[in-house]
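Narrative of accomplishments. A recurring question from our advisory board has been how the design workflow behaves on a single, concrete structure rather than in aggregate. To address it, we present the structure tokens for one chain from the evaluation set, followed by the sequence designed for it. No filtering or post-editing was applied between the two.
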């Protein structure tokens, strides 16, 4: 404790304004829009947008599914606007589940986020960046696996360093690379529209012929809704958002329709140039599109993918660190992860922890298979947050709610979440079982190390000593918090 107080005192001496040590509200409306767009639009729209088409084999109906998936995601985001303005702590789903259902349920969400969801997502996006950033230098063969891992590690470490140094610089990177990916998609859209205008639109003949069995339509919606993942990431950093009561819903209303429009128009462009069969058989649809439309400039497509995924890594890293910081403040992670730099006001320990968990996964040979275990868990946590919102309306009707959506909206969206959780079970029961076991493995961890705190005294002393040493090295202190989730 002495080390922490000394650091606070030192900071206050150098700060004539008496500025408190806490995360600052530096995220503007533009930053919030860029964070949502940048985390939703990753590599998928460039590499594998054919998932929706493959289900129905109908060009026209697949475009309708993209539109409806965007509309459903917007409904979910509106529910989160109510949650984020009534429960103003950072942490997103973790904070909402904690307030509604208590610490155990929230810890399980945090547990699976640490083990699988956050590091796996970040590692896969970083590896995708590395692969496509290296591709122009290896035009005739695949880049070496070790080179890809090394470049992914450089990406993770570089962005972690930027995030540690400045929130403003992290947001500038997010803004820049979001604009870059939108510009890249605009080039693809314009090229596709030009191709249609010049008279070649035969791929749209009989566009509503296809397979419209209920199972196939459901599969198409599953792929479409999954492609919009990331719309709730701004809720993980609400404590740093300027004027969240106004800017959170505004960012949602700007970002979600924009993403939906981009997704639909990009698919319109792809279908204008590629047949349905070509899209299904392509391992990277945008690369196949570029080979037909850009000729000798087709190397631009890997650059587009690299730009998109680099910004995606930054957004995931930024929001993940805030999730872990909030979990630490509630006693669900070591206290050290709640510390922030005494002058830069950045959560350096949680940022480094986030980076290290992803670096470890770079050495896992089949890291891409881990994504199969968390899709349902991710949507289950979203569903729990929506149920929690409805529950809190009854349990705490007097809770301040600057935004209150019509009850039909969360009910409709909750049905979509239940569908996303239940639909894959018959096709991949083993993945569902393993994901469930991983989640439930957090129960004994919670009772042993959080509720009962069974660590022996000598380990607590060693942990306290290590914390003080790291605290001095990193110049971090415990921030002042206006509230906790259990207060």
């Amino acid at each position: 404790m002495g080390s922490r107080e000394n650091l606070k005192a030192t900071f206050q001496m150098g700060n004539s304004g008496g500025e408190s040590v806490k995360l600052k509200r530096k995220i503007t409306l533009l930053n919030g829009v860029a964070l949502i767009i940048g985390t939703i639009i990753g590599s998928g729209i460039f590499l594998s947008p054919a998932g929706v088409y493959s289900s129905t084999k109908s060009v026209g109906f697949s475009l309708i599914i993209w539109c409806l998936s965007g509309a459903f995601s917007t409904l979910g985001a509106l529910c989160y606007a109510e949650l984020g303005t009534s429960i103003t702590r950072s942490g997103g789903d973790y904070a909402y589940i904690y307030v509604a259902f208590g610490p155990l349920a929230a810890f399980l969400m945090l547990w699976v986020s640490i083990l699988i969801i956050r590091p796996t997502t970040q590692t896969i996006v970083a590896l995708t960046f590395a692969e496509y950033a290296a591709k122009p230098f290896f035009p005739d063969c695949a880049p070496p696996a070790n080179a890809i891992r090394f470049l992914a590690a450089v990406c993770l470490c570089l962005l972690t360093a930027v995030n540690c140094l400045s929130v403003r610089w992290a947001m500038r990177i997010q803004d820049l690379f979001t604009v870059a990916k939108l510009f890249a998609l605009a080039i693809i859209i314009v090229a596709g529209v030009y191709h249609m205008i010049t008279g070649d639109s035969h791929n749209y003949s009989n566009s509503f012929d296809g397979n419209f069995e209920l199972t196939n339509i459901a599969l198409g919606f599953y792929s479409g809704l999954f492609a919009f993942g990331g719309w709730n990431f701004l809720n993980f950093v609400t404590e740093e958002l300027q004027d969240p009561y106004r800017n959170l819903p505004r960012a949602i209303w700007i970002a979600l329709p924009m993403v939906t429009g981009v997704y639909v128009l990009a698919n319109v462009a792809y279908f204008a140039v590629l047949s349905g069969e070509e899209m299904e058989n392509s391992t990277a649809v945008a690369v196949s599109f570029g080979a037909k439309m850009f000729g000798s400039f087709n190397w631009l497509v890997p650059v587009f993918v690299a730009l998109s995924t680099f910004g995606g890594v930054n957004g995931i890293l930024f929001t993940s660190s805030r999730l872990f910081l909030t979990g630490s403040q509630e006693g669900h992670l070591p206290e050290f992860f709640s510390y922030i730099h005494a002058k830069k006001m950045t959560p350096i320990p949680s940022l480094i922890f986030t980076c290290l968990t992803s670096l470890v996964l770079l050495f896992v040979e089949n890291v891409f298979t881990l994504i199969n275990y968390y899709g349902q868990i991710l949507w289950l946590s979203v569903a729990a947050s929506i149920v929690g919102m409805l529950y809190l309306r009854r349990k705490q009707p007097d809770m301040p709610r600057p935004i209150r959506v019509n009850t039909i909206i969360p009910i409709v969206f909750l049905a979509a979440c239940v569908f996303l959780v239940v639909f894959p079970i018959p096709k991949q029961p083993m993945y569902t079982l393993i994901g469930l076991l991983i989640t439930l493995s957090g129960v004994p961890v919670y009772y042993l190390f959080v509720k009962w705190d069974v660590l022996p005294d000598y380990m607590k002393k060693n942990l306290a000593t290590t914390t003080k040493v790291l605290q001095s090295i990193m110049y971090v202190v415990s921030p002042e918090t206006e509230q906790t989730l259990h207060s």
